[in-house]
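Input set for joint prediction.
Command: fold jointly, output tokens.
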Amino acid sequence: MNTALAVCQSGGWAEDAATLTWHERLAERLAALTPPTRKDEFWRYSRLSACFAPERTGRGLDCPFPSPEPLAGEWIRLDQGRPVASHTRAWRLRPWSELDETTRARWRERLEPGEDFFALRNLVEADAVLLLELEKTADAPLQLHYRHGAGWVQPLVLVELAPGARGALVETFSSFGPSTQNGAAHFWLGEGAELTHGVFTAGDGQALLHRVRARLCAHARLDVQAFASTGAYQRLEWDVTLGKSSTLRLSGITQGVPGGSNDVALRIRHAAPGAATDVLWRGLVPAEAHSAVIGRILIEPAGQRTDAAMRLDHLLLADSAAADVKPELEIYADDVACGHGATLGRLDDEALFYLRSRGIPEAEARQLLIDAFLAPVLQRFTLAEVLRHVQSRLPRPDDAAA
Amino acid sequence: MSTTELDAALSQAYEAGFVTDIETETLPPGLDEKVIEYISAKKNEPEFLRQWRLEAFRRWQTMREPHWAHVRYEPIDYQGLIYYAAPKRRSETEIDPKLLETYEKLGVPVHERAALAGVAVDAVFDSVSVLTTFKDKLAEAGVIFCPISEAVQKYPELVQKYLGSVVPPGDNFFAALNSAVFSDGSFVYIPKGVRCPLELSTYFRINTARTGQFERTLIIADEGSYVSYLEGCTAPMRDEHQLHAAVVELIALEGAEIRYSTVQNWYPGDEEGRGGVYNFVTKRGLCAGRGAKISWTQVETGSAITWKYPSVILKGDDSVGEFYSVALTRGRQQADTGTKMIHLGRNTRSTIVSKGIAAGHSQNAYRGLVRINPGASGARNYTQCDSLLIGPHCGAHTFPYIESRNPRAIVEHEASTSRVSEEQLFYCRQRGIDPERAVALIVGGFCKDVFQKLPLEFAVEAGKLLEVSLEGSVG
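tokens >
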């Protein structure tokens, strides 16, 4: 373990005066806030009770994890919200305590959580605060592997790409047992920087909430490739602000598990001219599962010449499956081309009949159609790590026959 | 065209903004149980209705005004409003000629000679219905078309059975207020198997200052019947805001069809947002029986603020719900409008086509819910909502809610937002069409799907209204 990780393990925020004052103010704000309810638009379809089921019983609660899977390439392993081992070269890794005051001040400003209860709680109770910096171009993706298994776990990762830097970051999550991970990653993409962001979730833990907040400077590009499949409750959030002529491409698949509930919440803000957003999210919802996608694209008056598209589709695979979708556009500029589309339905009977009449067994025919449904998203997945995980997790013909 | 010219053209006069100088009987401003007792006594209502109103009022007092819509306005002083204003009648049968003049001026066919128009009219002036035409002709077919206050007297059993059955008094803040103080509105009953021989129409006019209009419309289409109903509304130009909180309930029994069309042209306020009508309306239809059909078509060009979601509850198997809407906002207007399609029965179908046009400094939002309940196997919904932006200071928003609890249903939704394309404009101008006409032409094309659903007379009126409203909106 390197020194940085050792420092990280000792707790979240370093106790310098400015940070202490800031932290105290955040704690006061948190005390005055109540958790969201289903009356809040961004939580109207959420299984909120699942998040609060495991009561926090103290920071740094230990959890006996199974032997970790070996990680390849560059990686950082975070158990119970804290980094425990790493192997990085291209990326610089520093805990909050090692940052100079200028950097700290900059990040304190960037981290303003607004009235978001979970964001505020993550800041106040962060188990570890880790800054990852990329100066140039990293050839191999950096994998952040999170595991949580007991109580409330709240890692906070800050990512900064210098102007023109290019890299890939893959966050993978394994959740176990009665625990809630309320994690956050904050990205700052300098001018012309490019980041490919992979997300892959798995496990049978109680609840996983992960918030990604990204700020794209001019001409920056963020390419998100996500696959969501996990235990009782999971919520992935992207809150992206696009600068001038920047680009966001967000592609994702939700694969529900029986009895589970998956939320995806997207807040995309075009605050400068000439930016482009392209969202494609598809969900497979099996028996007793629930999937929800709430997406909002906001075009501010300065967001002229915006090109934004959002497509949200769900395939309900069984009678007891349920899905909710809310694709929103809020537009305050006139020179824009924005659109969204959403569909909810099951496998097409006619297509199924067509395949079966050609001698393809039903289960196989269903699988073919599911593959076809997911293909446009998979084609956008360029990260080998995510693609490999996805393919190992996609339903087999037996599952699809439900 | 310069910005000044554009602004000047956009602020052109509101033609229906005149005031009728007529003697009226009004209650002092304020709302308490006494006001409700007064309204109920004035209309000589049966006990059940008096109780119903009082219960709604008590409910309303415990409720909070909703603020989730994408509109901003100053708080409404509910105690500063007049809840009852009626033109004084000279006798039971005679109608003040000034009233007739008013409707003539507005182009509403209130004389029966207007039979050529094929429309029977119920004219509501402030809180009361002042006349209803062609009652006798409709009665021959067994159709009941009268003010709701008259229906309460003549057909209390029908009113008691259906009033509040689709929009219960406690449904929402404005519906509760309406249930407590509604003063008039139209009542329609189409008997089994009857195809209503005339288009039915109600024309709403707010005249008196500081008056709220709370009308209630109840339409019942019995098995296998058909009715087409049109609704129009205007108000004088005043500096203060006026509240219009109506409730419309439609009930279509097995195999019945109701077409409900609205051309809403309430006073929108001036360029600075002074005055104008707050149009907070609850409209809902129930397809109660198998194969019933309810179709809402609306053209919304007026009102300072519109908060309106004509909905259909598709309870009967194979029932059909439709919603076609054009909402145009300009100046400082704000609209949050859309629909709800609640699929309960099997093989129910719904179609939503919504066209929003925002100009000036206005905000135009579509808000719609499509809900597929577990029993709605084979249900189908198609939604298309498009927005057009004219000018850099307006906003167009889309808030669709899509909820499915049945995999045997198919829901499709698509939406687009853009401005009038340069290419289209160029094409028109190349052919010698001036920019204003070109925009009107393009917007007309944009709204065509909806206009086609309007009855002929309304389609013409709506087209003209849109053209006038859009004058000078492009440079």
